[in-house]
Amino acid sequence: MRPLTEEETRVMFEKIAKYVGENLQLLVDRPDGTYCFRLHNDRVYYVSEKILKLAANISGDKLVSLGTCFGKFTKTHKFRLHITALDYLAPYAKGFGVAAKSTQDCRKVDPMAIVVFHQADIGEYVRHEETLT
To answer: The 60S ribosome subunit biogenesis protein NIP7 pre-PUA domain covers which part of the protein (predicted)?
Structure first.
């Protein structure tokens, strides 16, 4: 288990930032303690520093996993998020899309109808209104 390199950190944070935006810092500096990302067997784990210090007594070849697996690096050094990261990303996630129909209409609509127009963050227009062109 080792810390991520500069390049690995950049690639991983770019991927996570697509989903949580500027809230990325809130993943590391949490009110219940400091959390960090560690790499073990090409997988990135999200773990509290308290547990990380306790795990230092276990040799790397005997350690199976530690904390929550956020994702893994592929052989081409791309980062893939795992479903286990969803519980940690969901509270900070960006908005999903613009609804094309009301909730009542969505219940009765046929399966091929358009329900969401634009899958993006609607609040982005409000937050960054002065920088939009």
So the answer is: 1-83
